[in-house]
Amino acid sequence: MKPITSVISAIIISLLFIVTMSNSLAGTGLKIHGFVGQNTTMPASGATVKLIQGSTGQVVDIVQTNFFGKYKFKSLNSGYYKIISGEITREVMLKKKDIRLDIDLSAKGGSMNYAKDGMKDLMDAISGKGTARNATTSGPNDPNLQKYMAGSYFSFSGGGYGSHGGSSNSLTLCPDGRFSRSSESGYSGNTSGGGAWGTANQGGNRGKWTISGNKMNGKITLFNSDGSKNSFKFQDCSQESSGCFYFDGIKFGWGQAKCR
User: Fold this and answer.
1) Does residue 248 share a domain with residue 198?
2) Which residues, including other chains, have CB under 8 Å from residue 151's CB and lie 6 or more apart?
3) Can you give the pTM of this predicted structure?
4) Are residues 224 and 150 in the same domain?
5) For residue 226, what are the contacts with CB-CB under 8 A and spacing of at least 6?
6) Residues ≥6 apart with Cβ < 8 Å to 118
């Protein structure tokens, strides 16, 4: 039989080991994510984003943004990091919460500023909460134009370093006349101080849609599942950048629709 002092020593050592392991695991599994935009309204698809250990300069990970300009680094330890995309370098102090960090490649310092007139009005119209500026009443539907305009459209706004508010909006127009829409809005803290972006609201809507006009411009009307309807003007902007349309003056990226 072992002396009681040996048993106590073994227990103490085990407890110290558990505490040490707990401390070493604290702040792990964290995430840095966000958007990279060519500007405040156009996602930078396929952009390279590097995650650098701020204190050592070591490259932790390299990813590319998806079609919607989104990127994500996950399973991270707490600490000081740098996010690099193009000529832009942003600093992040990751502590106890995930951080969202958006990057505007066209802005000095890369900070996002999406306080654009008309964005809220348009998002309200798409979601069925209100009527967008310059909205008009519904008109006849053009099935051929409907097939041409079918696709997944995406625009985003978001609070970056030192700013507040953020949202992403996705609108899928199916060629058979169905539509679906999703959105996510939140708030953003000052990332250098460890503030984290958190979701304040998530929403979505489904229904039918009609279109009139031509391939360059016209009007889209959404008939929401709650019985309301909303209209907004569209205009092709492919001369500025490939795969984009203006919806009531707000630029949306375009991709293939995933409809079932």
Assistant:
1) yes
2) 172, 173, 254, 255, 256, 257
3) 0.51
4) yes
5) 128, 205
6) 132, 133, 248, 249, 250
Q: Could you read off the pLDDT of 90-144 as tens digits, one per residue?
A: 999 998 889 988 898 988 888 876 554 445 555 555 555 554 444 333 457 899 9
Is residue 89 one of the residues assigned to a domain?
yes
Which pair of tokens denotes residue 114? 């999406």
CATH number of residue 83's parent domain:
2.60.40.10
Instruction: Give the integer Cα–Cα distance in Å for 74 and 137.
Output: 46
Contact 68, 253 (CB under 8 A): yes
Strand stretches in 54-187, DSSP E: 59-64, 70-76, 79-85, 88-94, 99-100, 103-104, 151-158, 166-173, 178-187
For residues 249 and 123, membership in a common domain is answered with yes
- Give the pair of three-digit tokens for residue 98: 């995930």
Are the C-beta atoms of residues 30 and 78 closer than 8 Å to each other?
Answer: yes
- d(CA 152, CA 170) in angstroms, rounded, equals 7
Ramachandran class of 207: left when φ > 0, alpha when ψ lies in -120 to 50, beta otherwise: left
The single-letter code of the amino acid at 197 is W
Q: Residue 90 is part of which domain span?
A: 30-110
